[in-house]
Automatic annotation (TrEMBL):
Pfam families: AAA_22, BTAD, Trans_reg_C
Organism field: Pseudonocardia alaniniphila
Homology family: Belongs to the AfsR/DnrI/RedD regulatory family.
Keywords for the protein's UniProt record, in alphabetical order: DNA-binding, Transcription, Transcription regulation
Protein name according to UniProt: Winged helix-turn-helix domain-containing protein
InterPro entries, alphabetized: AAA_22, AfsR-DnrI-RedD_regulator, BTAD, OmpR/PhoB-type_DNA-bd, P-loop_NTPase, Sig_transdc_resp-reg_C-effctor, TPR-like_helical_dom_sf, WH-like_DNA-bd_sf
DNA-binding is among the record's keywords: yes
Claim: Cytoplasm is one of the keywords in the record: no
Length: 388
Protein backbone atom coordinates (compact mmCIF):
# COMPACT_ATOMS: atom_id res chain seq x y z
CA UNK A 1 0.00 0.00 0.00
CA UNK A 2 1.69 3.26 -1.08
CA UNK A 3 1.26 5.24 2.11
CA UNK A 4 4.79 6.52 2.42
CA UNK A 5 7.38 6.04 5.11
CA UNK A 6 7.22 4.06 8.32
CA UNK A 7 5.35 6.66 10.37
CA UNK A 8 2.07 6.64 8.44
CA UNK A 9 2.34 2.86 8.37
CA UNK A 10 2.61 2.69 12.14
CA UNK A 11 -0.46 4.89 12.30
CA UNK A 12 -2.39 2.56 10.01
CA UNK A 13 -1.23 -0.51 11.91
CA UNK A 14 -2.28 1.01 15.23
CA UNK A 15 -5.78 1.60 13.85
CA UNK A 16 -5.98 -1.74 12.04
CA UNK A 17 -5.19 -3.61 15.22
CA UNK A 18 -8.28 -2.13 16.86
CA UNK A 19 -10.83 -2.08 14.09
CA UNK A 20 -13.99 -0.25 14.98
CA UNK A 21 -12.58 1.15 18.23
CA UNK A 22 -11.55 4.67 18.98
CA UNK A 23 -7.78 4.91 19.36
CA UNK A 24 -6.94 8.10 21.20
CA UNK A 25 -4.74 10.72 19.57
CA UNK A 26 -2.43 10.45 22.60
CA UNK A 27 -1.92 6.82 21.93
CA UNK A 28 -1.43 7.35 18.20
CA UNK A 29 1.12 10.10 18.75
CA UNK A 30 2.94 7.88 21.20
CA UNK A 31 2.96 4.99 18.72
CA UNK A 32 4.13 7.09 15.78
CA UNK A 33 6.75 9.32 17.39
CA UNK A 34 7.44 7.93 20.83
CA UNK A 35 9.73 10.35 22.69
CA UNK A 36 10.83 12.14 19.51
CA UNK A 37 7.74 14.26 18.88
CA UNK A 38 7.54 17.00 16.29
CA UNK A 39 6.71 20.52 17.49
CA UNK A 40 2.99 20.15 16.62
CA UNK A 41 2.25 16.41 16.97
CA UNK A 42 -1.52 16.75 16.54
CA UNK A 43 -1.09 18.74 13.36
CA UNK A 44 1.41 16.20 12.05
CA UNK A 45 -0.99 13.41 12.95
CA UNK A 46 -3.79 15.13 11.03
CA UNK A 47 -1.51 15.39 8.01
CA UNK A 48 -0.89 11.65 8.11
CA UNK A 49 -4.57 10.97 8.59
CA UNK A 50 -5.44 12.86 5.44
CA UNK A 51 -2.77 10.99 3.55
CA UNK A 52 -4.27 7.70 4.80
CA UNK A 53 -7.76 8.83 3.87
CA UNK A 54 -6.57 9.46 0.32
CA UNK A 55 -5.12 5.94 0.16
CA UNK A 56 -8.26 4.42 1.63
CA UNK A 57 -10.57 6.42 -0.62
CA UNK A 58 -10.98 3.66 -3.22
CA UNK A 59 -12.08 1.28 -0.45
CA UNK A 60 -14.48 3.78 0.91
CA UNK A 61 -18.08 3.25 1.66
CA UNK A 62 -19.00 5.86 4.16
CA UNK A 63 -16.08 7.39 5.96
CA UNK A 64 -13.32 4.90 6.65
CA UNK A 65 -11.12 6.86 8.94
CA UNK A 66 -13.23 8.97 11.19
CA UNK A 67 -12.42 11.43 13.92
CA UNK A 68 -14.29 10.65 17.09
CA UNK A 69 -13.12 12.22 20.33
CA UNK A 70 -10.67 11.48 21.77
CA UNK A 71 -9.14 9.91 18.68
CA UNK A 72 -9.70 8.12 15.41
CA UNK A 73 -11.68 5.03 14.38
CA UNK A 74 -11.04 2.82 11.43
CA UNK A 75 -14.48 1.68 10.32
CA UNK A 76 -14.64 -1.87 9.04
CA UNK A 77 -17.56 -4.20 8.59
CA UNK A 78 -17.51 -7.51 10.48
CA UNK A 79 -16.77 -9.54 7.39
CA UNK A 80 -14.06 -7.28 6.02
CA UNK A 81 -11.15 -8.21 8.22
CA UNK A 82 -9.89 -11.75 8.43
CA UNK A 83 -8.82 -11.06 12.02
CA UNK A 84 -12.46 -10.42 12.95
CA UNK A 85 -13.64 -13.46 11.06
CA UNK A 86 -10.94 -15.49 12.78
CA UNK A 87 -12.08 -14.37 16.23
CA UNK A 88 -15.70 -15.16 15.39
CA UNK A 89 -14.92 -18.67 14.12
CA UNK A 90 -12.68 -19.43 17.09
CA UNK A 91 -15.37 -18.32 19.52
CA UNK A 92 -17.90 -20.56 17.80
CA UNK A 93 -15.47 -23.48 17.74
CA UNK A 94 -14.77 -23.11 21.47
CA UNK A 95 -18.47 -23.00 22.07
CA UNK A 96 -18.97 -26.30 20.21
CA UNK A 97 -16.06 -27.88 22.06
CA UNK A 98 -17.53 -26.82 25.40
CA UNK A 99 -20.84 -28.56 24.67
CA UNK A 100 -19.14 -31.81 23.74
CA UNK A 101 -19.14 -31.48 19.95
CA UNK A 102 -15.42 -31.77 19.14
CA UNK A 103 -16.13 -32.81 15.54
CA UNK A 104 -17.84 -29.55 14.69
CA UNK A 105 -15.26 -27.67 16.75
CA UNK A 106 -12.43 -29.07 14.63
CA UNK A 107 -14.20 -28.02 11.42
CA UNK A 108 -14.58 -24.48 12.73
CA UNK A 109 -11.02 -24.28 14.06
CA UNK A 110 -9.80 -25.47 10.66
CA UNK A 111 -11.77 -22.74 8.93
CA UNK A 112 -10.41 -20.14 11.36
CA UNK A 113 -6.79 -21.23 11.08
CA UNK A 114 -7.04 -21.42 7.29
CA UNK A 115 -7.46 -17.63 7.28
CA UNK A 116 -3.87 -17.23 8.36
CA UNK A 117 -1.30 -16.55 5.71
CA UNK A 118 2.19 -16.09 7.09
CA UNK A 119 2.85 -13.83 10.04
CA UNK A 120 0.23 -11.28 10.95
CA UNK A 121 0.81 -7.72 9.73
CA UNK A 122 4.32 -8.67 8.66
CA UNK A 123 4.51 -5.47 6.64
CA UNK A 124 4.17 -3.49 9.87
CA UNK A 125 7.18 -4.75 11.73
CA UNK A 126 7.62 -1.79 14.04
CA UNK A 127 8.51 -1.90 17.71
CA UNK A 128 5.46 0.27 18.46
CA UNK A 129 2.97 -2.37 17.33
CA UNK A 130 4.97 -5.50 18.08
CA UNK A 131 3.14 -6.15 21.31
CA UNK A 132 -0.19 -6.08 19.48
CA UNK A 133 1.11 -8.34 16.76
CA UNK A 134 2.41 -10.74 19.38
CA UNK A 135 -1.08 -10.77 20.85
CA UNK A 136 -2.48 -11.86 17.47
CA UNK A 137 0.12 -14.61 17.20
CA UNK A 138 -0.85 -15.74 20.67
CA UNK A 139 -4.50 -15.97 19.66
CA UNK A 140 -3.48 -18.18 16.80
CA UNK A 141 -1.40 -20.45 19.01
CA UNK A 142 -4.29 -20.70 21.49
CA UNK A 143 -6.65 -21.67 18.68
CA UNK A 144 -4.19 -24.31 17.46
CA UNK A 145 -3.98 -25.76 20.97
CA UNK A 146 -7.76 -25.86 21.30
CA UNK A 147 -8.08 -27.51 17.91
CA UNK A 148 -5.56 -30.14 18.97
CA UNK A 149 -7.51 -30.69 22.17
CA UNK A 150 -10.65 -31.37 20.12
CA UNK A 151 -8.69 -33.76 17.89
CA UNK A 152 -7.49 -35.62 20.97
CA UNK A 153 -11.09 -35.93 22.16
CA UNK A 154 -12.01 -37.38 18.79
CA UNK A 155 -9.31 -40.01 19.18
CA UNK A 156 -7.41 -38.44 16.29
CA UNK A 157 -4.25 -37.67 18.25
CA UNK A 158 -2.07 -39.60 15.80
CA UNK A 159 -3.04 -37.06 13.12
CA UNK A 160 -1.62 -34.16 15.11
CA UNK A 161 1.63 -35.70 16.34
CA UNK A 162 3.74 -34.11 13.59
CA UNK A 163 2.20 -30.69 14.05
CA UNK A 164 2.54 -30.93 17.83
CA UNK A 165 6.12 -32.02 17.57
CA UNK A 166 6.95 -28.90 15.54
CA UNK A 167 5.02 -26.66 17.95
CA UNK A 168 6.79 -28.10 20.99
CA UNK A 169 10.14 -27.41 19.33
CA UNK A 170 9.11 -23.87 18.59
CA UNK A 171 7.59 -23.18 22.00
CA UNK A 172 9.58 -25.47 24.27
CA UNK A 173 8.33 -23.86 27.48
CA UNK A 174 4.63 -24.14 26.63
CA UNK A 175 3.58 -26.94 28.94
CA UNK A 176 0.12 -27.44 27.51
CA UNK A 177 1.63 -28.33 24.14
CA UNK A 178 4.01 -30.78 25.75
CA UNK A 179 1.12 -32.44 27.62
CA UNK A 180 -0.87 -32.69 24.39
CA UNK A 181 2.06 -34.23 22.57
CA UNK A 182 2.43 -36.79 25.36
CA UNK A 183 -1.25 -37.72 25.03
CA UNK A 184 -1.14 -37.84 21.23
CA UNK A 185 1.90 -40.10 21.26
CA UNK A 186 0.45 -42.35 23.92
CA UNK A 187 -2.80 -42.58 21.97
CA UNK A 188 -0.76 -43.67 18.94
CA UNK A 189 0.84 -46.51 20.88
CA UNK A 190 4.10 -44.56 21.31
CA UNK A 191 4.41 -44.58 25.06
CA UNK A 192 8.20 -44.43 25.20
CA UNK A 193 8.27 -41.28 23.09
CA UNK A 194 5.50 -39.78 25.21
CA UNK A 195 7.63 -40.33 28.31
CA UNK A 196 10.66 -38.84 26.56
CA UNK A 197 8.69 -35.62 25.91
CA UNK A 198 8.08 -35.38 29.64
CA UNK A 199 11.73 -36.00 30.47
CA UNK A 200 12.85 -33.27 28.06
CA UNK A 201 10.34 -30.79 29.37
CA UNK A 202 11.22 -31.51 32.97
CA UNK A 203 14.95 -31.28 32.36
CA UNK A 204 14.55 -27.93 30.67
CA UNK A 205 12.33 -26.52 33.41
CA UNK A 206 14.54 -27.75 36.22
CA UNK A 207 17.79 -26.64 34.58
CA UNK A 208 16.63 -23.26 33.37
CA UNK A 209 14.06 -22.18 35.90
CA UNK A 210 14.52 -24.51 38.83
CA UNK A 211 10.85 -25.54 38.79
CA UNK A 212 9.02 -28.79 38.28
CA UNK A 213 6.43 -29.20 35.50
CA UNK A 214 2.98 -27.91 36.40
CA UNK A 215 0.35 -30.15 37.95
CA UNK A 216 -1.62 -30.83 34.72
CA UNK A 217 1.53 -32.09 32.98
CA UNK A 218 2.54 -34.20 35.96
CA UNK A 219 -0.94 -35.73 35.98
CA UNK A 220 -0.65 -36.73 32.32
CA UNK A 221 2.75 -38.23 33.07
CA UNK A 222 1.42 -40.25 36.00
CA UNK A 223 -1.47 -41.53 33.90
CA UNK A 224 0.89 -42.56 31.15
CA UNK A 225 2.83 -44.64 33.61
CA UNK A 226 -0.35 -46.20 34.96
CA UNK A 227 -1.93 -46.81 31.54
CA UNK A 228 -4.89 -44.89 32.85
CA UNK A 229 -7.87 -45.49 30.53
CA UNK A 230 -8.93 -41.85 30.89
CA UNK A 231 -6.06 -41.03 28.56
CA UNK A 232 -8.01 -42.76 25.83
CA UNK A 233 -10.18 -40.40 23.84
CA UNK A 234 -13.50 -39.60 25.42
CA UNK A 235 -16.78 -39.13 23.68
CA UNK A 236 -17.47 -40.83 20.40
CA UNK A 237 -17.80 -44.60 20.43
CA UNK A 238 -14.71 -46.02 18.77
CA UNK A 239 -16.01 -47.64 15.62
CA UNK A 240 -16.00 -47.29 11.88
CA UNK A 241 -19.05 -49.50 11.30
CA UNK A 242 -21.31 -48.07 8.60
CA UNK A 243 -24.82 -47.07 9.48
CA UNK A 244 -27.38 -49.65 8.51
CA UNK A 245 -28.90 -48.77 5.14
CA UNK A 246 -31.59 -51.42 4.65
CA UNK A 247 -33.69 -53.63 6.90
CA UNK A 248 -32.21 -56.87 8.16
CA UNK A 249 -34.67 -59.75 8.16
CA UNK A 250 -34.80 -63.15 9.83
CA UNK A 251 -31.61 -64.85 11.00
CA UNK A 252 -32.59 -64.65 14.69
CA UNK A 253 -31.38 -68.15 15.35
CA UNK A 254 -28.02 -67.60 13.65
CA UNK A 255 -27.56 -64.29 15.46
CA UNK A 256 -28.10 -65.95 18.83
CA UNK A 257 -25.71 -68.72 17.96
CA UNK A 258 -23.00 -66.30 16.90
CA UNK A 259 -23.51 -64.28 20.03
CA UNK A 260 -22.99 -67.38 22.16
CA UNK A 261 -19.92 -68.46 20.23
CA UNK A 262 -18.38 -65.01 20.48
CA UNK A 263 -18.40 -65.20 24.26
CA UNK A 264 -15.63 -67.76 24.18
CA UNK A 265 -14.06 -67.76 20.76
CA UNK A 266 -11.46 -65.15 19.91
CA UNK A 267 -11.66 -65.98 16.22
CA UNK A 268 -15.00 -66.75 14.64
CA UNK A 269 -15.37 -67.17 10.88
CA UNK A 270 -18.74 -67.01 9.12
CA UNK A 271 -18.52 -69.15 6.02
CA UNK A 272 -20.91 -69.81 3.14
CA UNK A 273 -21.37 -69.41 -0.57
CA UNK A 274 -21.26 -66.01 -2.24
CA UNK A 275 -24.21 -63.75 -1.57
CA UNK A 276 -25.68 -65.84 1.22
CA UNK A 277 -25.41 -62.93 3.65
CA UNK A 278 -22.17 -63.44 5.62
CA UNK A 279 -20.96 -59.86 5.46
CA UNK A 280 -24.33 -58.48 6.34
CA UNK A 281 -24.65 -60.80 9.30
CA UNK A 282 -21.20 -59.92 10.60
CA UNK A 283 -22.06 -56.22 10.51
CA UNK A 284 -25.35 -56.84 12.32
CA UNK A 285 -23.61 -58.89 14.99
CA UNK A 286 -20.85 -56.31 15.41
CA UNK A 287 -23.34 -53.48 15.71
CA UNK A 288 -25.44 -55.30 18.30
CA UNK A 289 -22.57 -56.46 20.53
CA UNK A 290 -22.07 -55.38 24.08
CA UNK A 291 -19.46 -52.65 23.56
CA UNK A 292 -18.28 -52.68 27.15
CA UNK A 293 -16.35 -55.80 26.28
CA UNK A 294 -14.42 -53.82 23.68
CA UNK A 295 -13.38 -50.52 25.25
CA UNK A 296 -11.03 -49.86 22.33
CA UNK A 297 -13.79 -50.20 19.81
CA UNK A 298 -15.23 -52.23 16.98
CA UNK A 299 -13.44 -51.91 13.67
CA UNK A 300 -14.47 -53.07 10.23
CA UNK A 301 -11.69 -53.99 7.81
CA UNK A 302 -13.17 -54.37 4.36
CA UNK A 303 -10.94 -56.71 2.36
CA UNK A 304 -13.18 -56.91 -0.69
CA UNK A 305 -11.50 -54.11 -2.67
CA UNK A 306 -8.05 -55.67 -2.29
CA UNK A 307 -6.39 -57.33 -5.21
CA UNK A 308 -5.46 -60.90 -4.38
CA UNK A 309 -2.44 -61.21 -2.15
CA UNK A 310 -2.23 -57.56 -1.11
CA UNK A 311 -1.22 -56.73 2.43
CA UNK A 312 -4.22 -57.13 4.71
CA UNK A 313 -2.30 -55.34 7.44
CA UNK A 314 -2.48 -52.10 5.48
CA UNK A 315 -6.26 -52.24 5.50
CA UNK A 316 -6.24 -52.93 9.21
CA UNK A 317 -3.75 -50.12 9.84
CA UNK A 318 -5.93 -47.69 7.90
CA UNK A 319 -9.10 -48.74 9.69
CA UNK A 320 -7.44 -48.36 13.09
CA UNK A 321 -5.45 -45.31 12.00
CA UNK A 322 -2.21 -46.97 13.01
CA UNK A 323 0.93 -45.49 11.54
CA UNK A 324 3.93 -47.51 10.56
CA UNK A 325 6.51 -47.16 13.29
CA UNK A 326 10.06 -46.24 12.58
CA UNK A 327 12.11 -49.38 12.05
CA UNK A 328 9.07 -51.70 11.95
CA UNK A 329 7.00 -53.15 9.16
CA UNK A 330 3.35 -52.21 8.94
CA UNK A 331 2.46 -55.72 10.15
CA UNK A 332 4.66 -55.32 13.21
CA UNK A 333 3.25 -51.86 13.87
CA UNK A 334 -0.30 -53.20 13.79
CA UNK A 335 0.50 -56.08 16.14
CA UNK A 336 2.38 -53.75 18.47
CA UNK A 337 -0.57 -51.38 18.54
CA UNK A 338 -3.04 -54.17 19.23
CA UNK A 339 -0.94 -55.97 21.82
CA UNK A 340 -2.49 -54.13 24.74
CA UNK A 341 -5.93 -53.28 23.28
CA UNK A 342 -9.36 -54.74 23.79
CA UNK A 343 -11.28 -54.51 20.56
CA UNK A 344 -13.21 -56.39 17.91
CA UNK A 345 -11.87 -56.59 14.38
CA UNK A 346 -14.32 -57.54 11.65
CA UNK A 347 -12.27 -58.94 8.76
CA UNK A 348 -14.82 -58.92 5.98
CA UNK A 349 -14.56 -60.94 2.77
CA UNK A 350 -11.31 -62.74 3.59
CA UNK A 351 -11.63 -65.19 0.70
CA UNK A 352 -9.93 -62.68 -1.61
CA UNK A 353 -6.81 -62.67 0.52
CA UNK A 354 -7.15 -65.91 2.40
CA UNK A 355 -3.47 -66.58 3.16
CA UNK A 356 -2.69 -63.07 4.30
CA UNK A 357 -5.86 -62.99 6.41
CA UNK A 358 -4.98 -66.29 8.02
CA UNK A 359 -1.46 -65.10 8.82
CA UNK A 360 -2.75 -61.91 10.39
CA UNK A 361 -5.41 -63.77 12.38
CA UNK A 362 -2.80 -66.23 13.66
CA UNK A 363 -0.51 -63.35 14.66
CA UNK A 364 -3.35 -61.65 16.47
CA UNK A 365 -4.30 -64.82 18.32
CA UNK A 366 -0.70 -65.34 19.42
CA UNK A 367 0.20 -61.78 20.40
CA UNK A 368 -2.90 -59.75 21.13
CA UNK A 369 -4.95 -61.39 23.88
CA UNK A 370 -7.52 -58.58 24.02
CA UNK A 371 -8.38 -58.71 20.32
CA UNK A 372 -11.39 -60.68 19.06
CA UNK A 373 -11.73 -61.34 15.33
CA UNK A 374 -14.99 -61.89 13.49
CA UNK A 375 -14.19 -62.93 9.94
CA UNK A 376 -16.37 -63.58 6.90
CA UNK A 377 -15.06 -65.76 4.13
CA UNK A 378 -16.28 -68.23 1.57
CA UNK A 379 -13.61 -70.61 2.96
CA UNK A 380 -12.52 -70.83 6.56
CA UNK A 381 -9.10 -69.50 7.50
CA UNK A 382 -7.61 -72.64 8.99
CA UNK A 383 -6.08 -70.90 12.00
CA UNK A 384 -5.58 -72.60 15.35
CA UNK A 385 -8.48 -71.75 17.67
CA UNK A 386 -10.80 -70.70 14.87
CA UNK A 387 -14.54 -71.34 15.32
CA UNK A 388 -16.33 -71.75 12.01
N1 LIG B 1 -30.86 -61.12 6.55
C1 LIG B 1 -30.82 -60.21 5.60
N2 LIG B 1 -31.77 -59.26 5.50
C2 LIG B 1 -31.71 -58.35 4.52
N3 LIG B 1 -30.77 -58.28 3.59
C3 LIG B 1 -29.78 -59.18 3.62
C4 LIG B 1 -29.74 -60.18 4.63
N4 LIG B 1 -28.64 -60.95 4.43
C5 LIG B 1 -28.02 -60.44 3.34
N5 LIG B 1 -28.68 -59.37 2.86
C6 LIG B 1 -28.32 -58.59 1.68
O1 LIG B 1 -27.95 -59.48 0.65
C7 LIG B 1 -26.82 -59.03 -0.07
C8 LIG B 1 -25.71 -60.07 -0.02
O2 LIG B 1 -25.30 -60.26 1.30
P1 LIG B 1 -23.78 -60.25 1.73
O3 LIG B 1 -23.05 -59.24 0.98
O4 LIG B 1 -23.76 -60.14 3.19
O5 LIG B 1 -23.33 -61.70 1.24
P2 LIG B 1 -21.95 -62.43 1.47
O6 LIG B 1 -22.27 -63.78 1.94
O7 LIG B 1 -21.05 -61.62 2.28
O8 LIG B 1 -21.44 -62.51 -0.01
P3 LIG B 1 -19.92 -62.68 -0.52
O9 LIG B 1 -19.52 -64.08 -0.20
O10 LIG B 1 -20.03 -62.45 -1.98
O11 LIG B 1 -19.09 -61.67 0.20
C9 LIG B 1 -26.45 -57.71 0.57
O12 LIG B 1 -27.03 -56.67 -0.16
C10 LIG B 1 -27.07 -57.80 1.94
O13 LIG B 1 -27.37 -56.52 2.47
MG1 LIG C 1 -19.26 -60.77 1.90
Amino acid sequence: MPIGGPKPRVLLASLLLRPGSVVSTDRLVEAVWGGARPPDPLGALRAYVSRLRAVLAPLQHGERLRYQAPGYVLAVADDELDATEFARLVAEARDRASVGDPGRAVTLFDAALALWRGDPLAEFDFAQVNADIARLADLRLGASEDRIEAMLHLGRGHEVVTELDALVRRFPGRERLAAQLMRALYGSGRQAEALAVYRDLRRRLVDELGVEPSEPVRTVHRRLLEHDPTLAPAGEPATNLPRRATAFVGRDQEMRRIDTLMRDARLLTLTGVGGVGKSRMALEVAAALDRSRFPDGVWLCELDPLADGSPVSHVVATALRVRQRHGSTIEQSVIEYLRSRKLLLVLDNCEHVLDASARLAADLMANCPGVVVLATSREFLGVHGEQV
